[in-house]
Amino acid sequence: MPDNSFKPLDPLLHSELRLAVMSILIGVDSADFVYLKSETGATSGNLSVQLDKLQQAGYIEVKKGFKGKMPQTVCSITDRGRDAFASYVEALRSYFPTQ
Amino acid sequence: MPDNSFKPLDPLLHSELRLAVMSILIGVDSADFVYLKSETGATSGNLSVQLDKLQQAGYIEVKKGFKGKMPQTVCSITDRGRDAFASYVEALRSYFPTQ
DNA sequence: ATAATTTGGTTTATAAAATAAACTACTTTA
DNA sequence: TAAAGTAGTTTATTTTATAAACCAAATTAT
Question: In this complex, is the C-beta atom of B50 within 8 Å of any C-beta atom belonging to chain A?
Answer without folding.
Answer: no
